[in-house]
Write a structure and sequence with these properties.
Blueprint (H helix, E strand, L loop, with lengths): L8 H22 L6 H14 L3 E5 L2 H11 L7 E5 L5 H8 L3 E5 L10 H7 L4 E5 L10 H11 L2 E5 L7 E3 L5 E3 L6 E5 L13 E5 L2 H10 L4 E3 L2 E2 L10 H32 L5 E2 L14 E5 L4 H10 L29 H9 E4 L7 H17 L1
Parallel strand pairs: 2-3, 2-4, 4-5, 5-8
Antiparallel strand pairs: 1-9, 6-7, 8-9, 10-11, 12-13, 13-14
Helix pairs in contact: 1-8, 2-8, 3-4, 3-7, 8-11
Length: 377
């Protein structure tokens, strides 16, 4: 049996090696490393895949969020509502721009932002909402958009973990994750469902004016070289990463289906043991399983994690500390206990290996190793 990885990028590479090597050699031979043809090609391919008017490639997912907020023209002190149960980048960019992050709790079963909590958190300074499509499943975008429209708020989707997922509206329409709000933002960090071989990100937008502004911001505020219309940043996706992403985009649906196959195996083997709560699937969103995250309800999580690691099965905790309890975001508004769901989840969640290269032998070994621990516990 191959060694089990949380994400097996080496095995994935071996399957696409001839394509990748050929395209990378082409980039190096051309020396078109920045904003070259490969970047334009990938941008166009991703626009088609997502059915979105504009894709603005950039250097990473955090930059994507920052540039989106910059393009909205928010002012210092404006409030942006987001979830406390997420990776720090979501709220980090809000604070970096001098905006005020307003944190809310999540749904206990799906880990996704609680729309009722969002509505209650709106105040006179609220200007935007950042829903996070955590672990590969879309937040309730129908509810979020209804709230945003009723209160004249912007919506920036954090789709860093959900590329390839979609949301199904009650009127029968379906839209890709990241293409519903004013902006969508994603990351191409290597471990993502669509990952490059370094850092990378992109912004999605259907509004021509906002997209044009974001495109200028990522390039030092320039439309014409050396003529700076806005204060911008230097955030570009390089051609080597674009070439890799272009190849992987052709395989993305297959990668996501393989992740679902692994998730269904975990469900079948672990769902009826009485000590785990398996990930909830929402009826209005397909799940692409960036992570497969259990809730440990009748088992010592740390002891189980140690048992798995000793036996060659990596397991991770996403996320051990909600944002409101992080030193960087300590705030008199948010005492311990302020967000009980997120705090409880932080003490219960455990993510198992999840990627497109998991084979049946590995999956059986992982679940059997867990069952062996339960027998001894």
């Amino acid at each position: 049996m191959r060694d089990i990885q949380m994400v097996d990028l080496k095995a994935q590479y071996q399957k696409i090696k001839p394509e990748v090597d050929k395209r990378l050699e082409g980039v190096i031979s051309s020396a078109a490393f920045i904003n070259g043809p490969e970047v334009q090609r990938f941008q166009s391919e991703l626009e088609t895949y997502l059915d979105v008017k504009h894709v603005i490639p950039c250097a990473n997912g955090t930059d994507a969020l920052q540039v989106a907020l910059m393009a909205l023209g928010l002012e210092r002190g404006d409030e942006v509502i987001t979830t406390t149960f997420t990776f720090i980048a979501t709220a980090e960019v809000i604070a970096l721009l001098g905006l005020t992050p307003v944190l809310v709790d999540v749904d206990p079963d799906s880990f996704l932002i609680d729309t009722d909590a969002v509505e209650k958190a709106i105040g006179p300074k609220t200007k935007a909402i950042i829903p996070v499509h955590l672990f590969g499943q879309c937040a309730n975008m129908e509810g979020i958009m209804r709230i945003a429209q009723a209160n004249d708020l912007y919506v920036v989707e954090d789709a860093a973990q959900s590329i390839g997922a979609s949301f199904h509206f009650s009127d029968g329409t379906t839209k890709a994750s990241g293409t519903i709000g004013d902006f969508g933002c994603t990351s191409f960090f290597p471990s993502k469902n669509l990952g490059c071989y370094g850092d990378g990100g992109a912004i999605f937008c259907n509004n021509d004016e906002l997209a044009d502004k974001a495109r200028v911001i990522v390039n030092h505020g320039m439309k014409v070289r050396y003529y700076h219309d806005l204060i911008g940043v230097n955030s570009r996706l390089d051609s080597i990463q674009a070439a890799v992403l272009s190849i992987k985009l052709e395989h993305l649906d297959h990668y996501n289906n393989e992740r679902r196959r692994a998730a269904f195996h975990y469900d079948k083997e672990l769902g009826d043991l009485g000590v785990f709560k398996v990930p909830k699937r929402l009826k209005n969103s397909c799940h692409v399983f960036h992570q497969y995250t259990l809730q440990c309800e009748g088992v010592d999580r740390e002891a189980l994690r140690e048992h798995l690691n000793v036996n060659g099965v990596p397991a991770m905790i996403y996320y051990p500390v909600p944002l409101h309890q992080q030193k960087a975001f300590r705030d008199a508004r948010y005492q311990d206990g302020a967000f009980p769901v997120s705090e409880e989840l932080a003490s219960k969640v455990l993510s198992l290996p999840m990627h497109s290269e998991l084979d049946d032998e590995q999956l059986n070994y992982i679940t059997q190793t867990i069952k062996e621990f339960l027998k001894k516990a």
